[in-house]
Amino acid sequence: MKRTLKILLIAVMAIATGCSSPSGDGAVTVKVKAVEQVANYTYLLVKGKGPEYWIAVSATEIEVGESITYEGGMLMENFHSKELDRTFEKVLFLDGLEGNQPSPMGGMGGTTQGSDIKTDRLETKIEAVAGTVSIAELYANPAAYEGKSIRVKGEVAKFNPNIMERNWIHLQDGTDFEGKYDLTITSQEGFVVGQVLTLEGILALNRDFGYGYNYAILLEKATVVN
Fold first, then answer.
1. Degrees (nearest 5) of the Cα angle 12, 16, 17?
2. Among 80-94, 124-138, 194-208, whose mean pLDDT is lowest?
3. Per-residue b or e along 87-120, where b marks 16 or more CB atoms closer than 10 Å to that residue's CB
């Protein structure tokens, strides 16, 4: 029995010291083996102490052979990239790389007219689901939904994590009202550009966060509806 326990302990220690977990805690340094660039992300095949694996960061210039360091991340399994037309068995999405962090306010897209103006329109058409409100309807009749809990279904067009203690999502469903087609959402959950999902949150009007970030319409404290 003691011999068996000793063997198991040695095996566990070997695993712990011989490979780095893609989503482990603390700083991880890896070498870039391959690079795939798309509009919003840079996908990197990297290798540390263990097997090669894929990570993704906001679009940036990185070359094969570079060493990079990161912490944390959100692991996505069977993630399909429409732009690359491939499915990753596992890919670790990162907030940024050490020494290459995004601007803390960059990409939020706030304007006095809402966030849709600064986000490119997606070629998407989301099938309406019972119990959800379209983005066109929200912009057409915002007062009817103010302060209410509502559900929306759409595709994630942009994701900016950890800004003012919130994650920021831009959602589109293919509908629009007078050229407004993009809904800004705040949440504590993590998301990936290209995801199609249903979110539930409280609709707020005329939210002003200062620094010029004003939102005519904002869905707050959103959670994913399964």
1. 120
2. 80-94
3. ebeebbbbbebeeeebeeeebbbbbeebbbeebe
CB 130 within 8 A of CB 140: no
Alpha carbon distance 126, 98 (integer Å)? 37
> E strands, the chain, where?
27-37, 41-47, 53-58, 67-71, 74-81, 86-93, 149-163, 166-172, 183-187, 196-208, 214-224
| Percent of the chain surpassing pLDDT 70 | 78
168-171 long-range contacts, CB within 8 A, separation 24+: 168/108, 169/199, 169/222, 170/109, 170/115, 170/119, 171/135, 171/199
The model's pTM is 0.56
Is the pLDDT confidence value at 16 over 70?
A: no
Confidence grade of residue 11 (pLDDT, cut at 50, 70, 90):
very low
The Cβ-side half-sphere exposure at 68, using a 13 Å CA radius, reads 27
Using DSSP's 3-state secondary structure scheme, residue 7 falls into helix
Give me the residues paired with residue 176 across strands.
none
- Residue 66 to residue 129: CA distance in whole angstroms: 46
- CATH for the 116-224 domain, from 3.90.180.10, 3.30.450.40, 2.40.50.140, 3.30.70.100: 2.40.50.140
Q: What is the CATH number of domain 17-93?
A: 2.40.50
Q: DSSP string spanning 134-149?
A: -HHHHHHSGGGTTT-E
